[in-house]
Specification:
This protein is of the alpha+beta class and 83 residues long. 25% of the residues lie in helices and 34% in strands.
Length: 83
Amino acid sequence: MYNLNLDKKAKEFLKRLKRGEQEIILNRIEKLKDNPYLGKRLAGNLFGLWKLRIDKYRVLYKIFDDKLIIVILDMGHRKNIYD
């Protein structure tokens, strides 16, 4: 089982959401502990990162298999998460 670490940027975004949206996102993120490859591998300038789609939001994360750690780098609306 992997450990989850939320970066400051991801925590700040999560705080701005309504309680219900927070719970949905946190529940989906928790599932990454058992299978970090639920998301989709990114390419281009985001090579090495993964994304998880949750409704209109995207969660960007990096997997460190050697340490069994997933770092949630950023979260945001699908329109501007990749800016």
